[in-house]
Amino acid sequence: MKYTLLIISFLLVSSVSFAASFSVFSQPGLNCSIPGYLTSTTSSTAENCDNIYLMSKTKEEKQIEFIESNIEIIAEEMSQGKGLFLADYARVLGCSERSVVDFSTITQKQMKNIFMKRNAKSILLRTQKIINDNSALSQSCSS
Length: 143
Description:
The chain has helices spanning 2-21, 59-80, 84-92, 100-109, 111-114, 120-133, 135-140; strands at residues 25-28, 38-39, 50-52. By secondary structure, the protein is mainly alpha-helical. The protein folds into two domains: 2-52, no CATH class; 59-140, no CATH class. Strands 1-3-2 form a three-stranded antiparallel beta sheet, with no helix packed on it.
């Protein structure tokens, strides 16, 4: 019994040490609303949230997941030209804080084009094209 507990303790410490050394744990403050991640809190807000990544995802996969999770609210806020999720969408695409207002205004004007298809990949590609075609946004966003 003693040896079993000792072995279990060793395995737990080893796995946590291994995970930490290979950056399995992310930095605090990342968005908890993105599905597919286990969180260390039960809070539904993104404030002070520590995510645990079980697998590495590409930037594009994270962007698509954000769109899929929030497609309706992004569409609604984009039609209004403002909103918290629309601002988060801009940030997910790599836009700086100072460019969020421009992003919101420009995407509002292009909303029908962006949401031509209700497919996350299509929405992402159309939004990226709009960013790249706009000189101000292409400099302040790294979609």
